[in-house]
Amino acid sequence: MQTAKHRWLWNGVFMGIVLMLAGGIYWSSKSIDYNWRWERVLPYIVDTSPQSIRAPFDGRAELGDDGRTLTLISDYGDAPLLLNQYSTLLVTDGDLLFEGDEIARINSVRTGPIANGMAMTLQLSVVSLLCSVVLGLGIGLGRLSANPALRKLCILYIEIIRGTPLLVQIFIIYFFVGTVLSLDRFTAGAAALTLFSAAYVAEIIRAGIQSVPTGQMEAARSLGMSYVRAMVEVILPQALRRSLPSLAGQFINLIKDSSLVSVISLTDLSKAGREVVSSTFAPFEVWFTIALLYLVMTASLSWLVQRLERHMATAH
């Protein structure tokens, strides 16, 4: 009973601190001379405004007998254009039209640049994450290889990648390697993130393998397993289970680090945010929204890793 009371007490303390922080942020927002316009941001996430349908040539409008079908007759002998899918008609029968005139509108729901930027960030992060796991696993195993040449090459790769900034690596891969191999922006950005993250994944996996007692390998070999089979069936499952929290932190960093690819004009979430700020002149609203979307992505990944960790613990 005492434990339950303590739990309620500390949960109340937690909620009180959160409310104080929220109140502090709200008070700070009111204390600055800034007109908050959150409605400016929503159309850049999901745009529900009607799309305009414009005349493709000079001519006149003819309405059908049903009052819904619109035919555009060209003054220059072009084929007539039949229009029957629209929400609002802006012309009447016999109206003269010029190329570019708005003749109708159609209701639609479209993703805005912020949503498109988030999709690009997710796509880039997923590709880089999967590739970095495969590459990092290979480098981590090479780091422990008995072959001196392979081991030293893996160490050299890890030290070079971890010792240079990701931004510099992106520039080198895009402007140098990308020019030689004719890589597009997405491929160059994904390659830079993969190479960068793989170095950290390799060290995490190497530490996980070394944390497994050496007796595990000796026992597996004494049962007649080859080194490769013992590594795959005995050592790696234990190493990955122990390394999962560190890998989750690295993958979360990968999502945040993906914002740097905007320097090569890849329209990810961060670059989309800068473009929207220049259009809306609402920097605080946009950047708070961008931060929230990054938080949603990283929190979702963290939740998935926790579920995987619990599943592996249960299976074990």
Structure explained in plain terms:
- The chain has about 325 residues and is α+β, with helices and mostly antiparallel strands.
- It folds into 2 domains: about 45-110, OB fold (Dihydrolipoamide Acetyltransferase, E2P) (Beta Barrel); about 115-315, MetI-like fold.
- It is about 65% helix and about 10% strand.
- The chain is built from 9 helices and 9 strands.
- It has helices at about 1-30, 115-145, 150-160, 165-180, 185-210, 215-220, 225-255, 270-280, 285-315; strands at about 45, 50-55, 60-65, 70-75, 80-85, 90, 95, 100-105, 110.
- The strands form 3 sheets. It has a 4-stranded antiparallel β-sheet with strand order 5-4-3-7, with no helix packed on it. It has a 3-stranded antiparallel β-sheet with strand order 2-8-6, with no helix packed on it.
- α6 (about 215-220) runs antiparallel to α7 and α7 (about 225-255) packs antiparallel against α9 (about 285-315).
- It is elongated and about 90 Å long.
- The model has no long low-confidence stretch (mean pLDDT about 90).
Task: List the SSEs and their pairings.
Layout: H1 2-31, E1 46-47, E2 51-54, E3 59-63, E4 70-74, E5 81-83, E6 88-89, E7 96-97, E8 102-106, E9 110-111, H2 113-143, H3 148-162, H4 166-181, H5 185-211, H6 214-222, H7 227-257, H8 269-280, H9 283-315
Antiparallel strand pairs: 1-9, 2-8, 3-4, 3-7, 4-5, 6-8
Helix pairs in contact: 2-3, 2-5, 2-8, 3-5, 4-5, 5-7, 6-7, 7-9, 8-9
